[in-house]
């Protein structure tokens, strides 16, 4: 309070007070500004750090995803390699099987060819066997026919022998009745007797030859023996016919 009784504080001009307040405020403002700058810087750094952390987390997440994909691709690659190896093994096995099938086809074709050849040979042998069987049957029939003819010839020989014996007895009785006991020798009689003996000998030889030929034919049963028997039969028949005609 001054001497005039005024309050000193009140006597201080408002301007001064305002100036002081402004200064103080400015000071405080400067202080606040520095604090704000520090806070802003810190906040910026914190924000940058947070952003970096987020980006780092994002990058880390992406890296993990890439690593996961890489592992998946590696697994797929291994699977593909395994599948390729399996395919190669299967292809090699298939080639081996094809080779085996080809060999078996070749062996089968060779066996079929051998079977076909064997069938042809069997058919040829069957035909030859049937031919031999037919020839055997024919030969048997020819032998049976020759046997029948032989029996017939033997019957003819027996009949002819009986006829000769009958003629001989008749001639002997006739000569006895005509000439009694007076012997008369005809010059031609010995010739006739000799001729009959020769004919009989020829007939007997022909008969034996025919019988022997028939026996050989029965044993061999071939065309040659059958032809030989037929020839001897014809010779025998020819002699018999000549003898019969000569005695008629």
TrEMBL record:
Q: Where is the composition biased (Basic and acidic residues)?
A: 15-26
Q: Where is this region: Disordered?
A: 1-43
What top-level branch of life does the organism fall under?
A: Eukaryota
Which GO terms of the molecular function aspect are on file? microtubule binding
Write the record's keywords in alphabetical order, separated by commas. Coiled coil
Which ranges of the sequence are coiled-coil?
A: 49-100, 129-163
Q: Which organism is it from?
A: Trifolium pratense (Red clover)
Q: What is this protein identified as?
A: Putative TMV-MP30 binding protein 2C
* Keyword Membrane (UniProt): no
Its taxonomic path starts at: Eukaryota, Viridiplantae, Streptophyta, Embryophyta, Tracheophyta
Q: Which GO terms describe its biological process?
A: plasmodesmata-mediated intercellular transport
Keyword Coiled coil present in the record's keywords: the answer is yes
Which N-terminal residues, if any, form the signal peptide?
none
